[in-house]
Amino acid sequence: MWGGFNAMWKKFIGLGMILAVMFSSAGCNLSPTSSQQPEKKQIEISMMYPMELKNFEALVEKEYPDIDLQVEMTTTATMNGDSERRLRKGHGTDLVVTTLPTSGVKDYVMDLSAEAFATAYQGSVASPVMIEGHTCYLPLPGQYAGYILNKTLVEQLGMEIPDTNSAMTDIFKAGKEQGKGIGEDGAMFGLATVSPASVGAYMIGTQVPDFLGTADGIKWMSEFDSGTAAFSGVWDNSLDLLAAWTEQGYLNAGTLSLKSKNTMPIESRLLDGTLMLSHGNVQMLTKLNSQSQQYEYVMLPYLSDQGNTSWVTSEPDGYIAINDALSNEGSKDKRDACVRILELLSTPEGQQAWMQDTEAPHSYLSDFKESLETVPQGIADCVKTGYIYDLQLSSDVVQYFGKNMTSVLDQKMKMDEALSAVDDYCRNGSAQVEYDQSFIGTMAEDLLYENYNTRREETAIGNLIADAVKEYTGADIAVVNGGGIRASLYKGDVLGEDLDAVCPYDNKIILVETKGETIVSMLENGISQTVRDASVPAGRFLQVSGLNYTYQPKDEEQPSKLVSVTLADGSELDKSAEYTLAVTNYMAGSVGYIDNNGDGYTMLNLYSDTTPKAENVKLVKETDATYSDAIKQYFQNHGDAPIQSKLEGRITVVGAGNE
After folding, report:
1. To which H or E segment does residue 224 belong?
2. What CATH code would you report for 439-653?
3. CA 582, CA 561: separation in Å to the nearest integer?
4. What is the torsional sign of CA 342, 348, 350, 351?
5. 221 neighbors 283 (Cβ within 8 angstroms)
6. Do residues 284 and 192 lie in contact, with contact meaning Cβ atoms separated by under 8 Å?
7. Which InterPro entries match (predicted)?
8. Higher-confidence residue: 538 or 19?
9. For the chain, how long is the longest CA-to-CA vector?
């Protein structure tokens, strides 16, 4: 028996050896070789920023090959106005960037206090944005801020570069008399960015030479931090200079309105010599001098009228945090990737890469060795001698102060009321700056505003707003300028804060009667700038209801072309027929057409006296409603079910896969 078993065993072993040789020769292995190993998927990390970050992205890829940093290009205004709302709605990016964070996001960003890099930054910059004593945001490399002056025009006036505010006022006076550095609106000064944070930071900066940078100012700040000092009775004259400039026409207070769709185009006016002075930073100065062959620009610090030393302010380009939604266990890989990115950013190499991308001259890392070679001559003395002021008020206070000071300049508040409101906010908070939690309705799905889509193509959110305007007015056709749409609506409950973010402007809807040929001209204007300024499309592009159109965007060889226009039922638009059309008073010239106001819709002009009035356009009805009001009414009218909106082929783009 055993002999037979041994014979069978030998045959079994022999067969096994043959099979092993066969598998080996065929290249078959029980475990795959390294070349056969499936590639490990990269961890995608999202963030929004208003410029490309090629050097920093390359550094991240080099140091961490498993991380794919995806930077969504956006405008600074959108980044500031929508990043925190997106967080609260559960749609925030993985890395969150905003110019000046508020305490309202304390439950939506991660506490970074335990990370070693949290203490790597200068306390004077990191402390004001702490949330209840915790480090949640890191300061990005930033800019020295002050004034940017057209040096060439000053020399043409035969005057010296000013070293006091009074001397600057004299330059305005001479420029106005000789027609230099002045636009059609009479303004000679403006702010590069208009937001509560930027206005507040500028106005606080003006107070540094003669107050905040003095012994009295240092004492006030210390007492303010301890709760024993107030704005009232101390800051009452802080707007005297700007008020004087406004009264004399050098500053148009309306351009500082937080509800204005078009702020003054500062850079273009400086470049064409129709603006003498702007508040700005080193990055802006560098850009202007590189683009202009006619003028030279110089940067100045904030000036004194009391013989005190001039100062510059230092402002981070933004603050970066990690979305707290990544705290759950299922997001561990993303969370760890974000921490690694911030850890890399918090090194001299990371700072340098970011600074190369953004042209920021200043890092807030405590041990960063900064070169003075990139500091403009006009502020070099301030930087070398340490007259650099970091904003020490909390971000919430800076924004609320800026909002109220704008209202004073716009004559909507008195100074004592504004300062009293700031003091009350510092003590108790204020409902005026809390986001609107009133319930509007429910969305069935996400309607996304991203990558400027409302400015070049049909969008579901554009269709919803245009439908709401059409229904509100009873018009045959309604159009909505894409630049008036600034954020997304998300699936689920829609609150008042969402409408404020999506349609933030207070332009009023009007109903007109006009011919089809005017509607064609209107659409041609709408498609005329879908590509401009490094592919950033203009806000004049029209989302529509009651109308369909096809267009071909402009390219290097030809301008944009309106290919066809039909009504919603598919019938052709009759150029000689009359239609009722819903637009806004802004498009119809309520603020004129200077500096790109009105988005160039001069064919609809009913209000501006400086532009020929429109032909074949008759005002039927003025409303007091904004886009936001129309959307609110639409939700009320259709509140029996979640609101839906989809693409319907209203706008076809030739050459975009739609031919």
Report:
1. helix 215-225
2. 3.90.780.10
3. 23
4. positive
5. no
6. yes
7. 5'-Nucleotdase_C, 5'-Nucleotdase_C_sf, 5_nucleotidase/apyrase, SBP
8. 538
9. 124
CA–CA distance, 163 with 166 (Å, rounded to integer): 9
Which residues touch 121 (CB under 8 Å, ≥6 apart)? 138, 139, 346, 364, 365, 366
Q: What dihedral angle (degrees, nearest 10) is formed by the CA atoms of 496, 502, 508, 509?
A: -110
- Block residue for tokens 């009722």: 580
pLDDT mean over 509-531: 95
Whether residue 467 contacts residue 505, with contact meaning beta carbons closer than 8 Å, is answered with: no
564-593 average pLDDT score: 96
Average pLDDT over residues 503-517: 95
Q: Which of 334, 301, 508, 360 is nearest to 53 (CA)?
A: 360
Confirm whether pTM is higher than 0.85: no
Residues whose CB falls within 8 Å of the CB of residue 111, separated by 6 or more in sequence, listed in order: 134, 135, 136
Compute the C-alpha angle 415/419/425, nearest 5°: 145
To which H or E segment does residue 244 belong? helix 240-247
What kind of fold does domain 43-139+318-358 have according to CATH? D-Maltodextrin-Binding Protein; domain 2 (3.40.190)
Share of the chain above pLDDT 70, in %: 89
Annotation: CATH topology of 143-315+376-431: D-Maltodextrin-Binding Protein; domain 2 (3.40.190)
Q: Do domains 43-139+318-358 and 143-315+376-431 have the same CATH topology?
A: yes
pLDDT at 260: 56
Distance CA 459, CA 570 (A): 19
- Domain-wise residue ranges, the chain: 2-36, 43-139+318-358, 143-315+376-431, 439-653
User: Which residue type does 639 have?
Assistant: G
DSSP letter assigned to residue 419:
H
**Which range, 75-89, 117-131, 643-657, has the best average confidence (pLDDT)?**
643-657
**How many angstroms separate the CA atoms of 424 and 421, rounded?**
5
For residue 182, give both structure tokens. 């002045």
User: What is residue 332's three-state secondary structure?
Assistant: helix
